[in-house]
Please model this.
Amino acid sequence: MKSTLAAGLTVAESAIHGKGCFATVRFRRRKKIAEYTGERITNAEAARRAHRRVLRISGLDQRHSIDGSRGGNGTHYINHSCRPNCYLQTISGRLIVLALRDIRPGEEITLDYVSSMHSDRKRCTCKASDCRGTINKTTAGA
Model:
């Protein structure tokens, strides 16, 4: 599957981790940034693929996930931050990335993963002043 970047986004080196997803246009608070796209897979298949070193899988609902590394549009490069500027919402069976606040061109797009397929011990590298220390929100890190 060939990837095409979502409008208004670019992928570049990130100070948080590897590559990141960056705004090329202004995104206003509560407005759609893009749809998280990729291969729609069952959650069982997502668990099977979870052994990868870098995960690009996001849960969609109780039965399905989206593997952004296969046919994604750049949104699969959105890194975790304990102080995110966007969030995910499932709307009509689609995973939509929405701005939590106004986002300026050049700014890295970030999500709080809260609960991911990463180990609860996976360290966070977001550098936020209120960083909880782990990617997943755990009772030990919350």
